[in-house]
Amino acid sequence: MPLTDQPVKGMYIKDEGRYFFLQDRMLKTQGRQGGLITMKLKALDNGQVVSKTIKSGTKVEFINPTTQQVQYMYRDDSYLYFMNMETFETMSIYKDIVGEYAKYLKEGENILVLMYEGQILSITENPSVILEITKTDDAVKGNTANAATKLATVETGYQLQTPLFVKEGDKIKINTQTGEYIGKAN
Predict the structure, then answer these.
(1) Where are the alpha helices (DSSP H) in the chain?
(2) CA distance 62 to 114
């Protein structure tokens, strides 16, 4: 694997047998002693964010993952199952790697995964998704004393608060970072 003494934000790093995404780096200089680089790393196996400090000039291992298109098929208690679009093989991804984004995946949807040496590192997440409402209660007239929202369930089973005018069969846009309603889809 290639080594570098200049870790850069957005780089993928291998450290102690684990893979990390470099979210941020900060250089601190200490006079004659040289500098220290503080790296904010996100573990790709469980999403944990860790901070690591190294001396300036220390070599780190970096990797160049490849992207591959896969199709989401189904999930069980521990894994999500995808089909490789080139070889039609079934691949399983531990649900902790996908994290909270799993509640926005619908069957038959194509997504991109980051892979390195046959191992899936993570999936690419869209900032918003469009899903259809499968269940919601009718709006109750005069129920606007508080925030005028109601609970709705989308096709993946995820539940969220939506405005009163939204009804079953509507397609809505959801922010995947916050899990909140953005608006109706066109």
Answers:
(1) 95-98
(2) 14
Residue 146 has pLDDT above 80, yes or no: no
* CATH numbers and ranges of domains, the chain: 3-63 (2.30.30.30), 66-123 (2.40.50.140), 128-184 (2.40.50.140)
pLDDT over threshold 90, residue 182: yes
Residue 143 has pLDDT above 70, yes or no: no
**Cα–Cα separations (whole angstroms), residue 50 to 47, 53, 64, 88, 131:** 10, 10, 21, 36, 33
Does the pLDDT at position 49 exceed 70? Answer: yes
The residue with tokens 């993928």 is 12
DSSP string, 163-180: ETT--TT-EEEEETTT--
What token pair was written down for 76?
A: 């069980």
- What's the pLDDT score for residue 105? 92
State how far the Cα of 92 lies from the Cα of 32, in Å rounded to an integer.
51
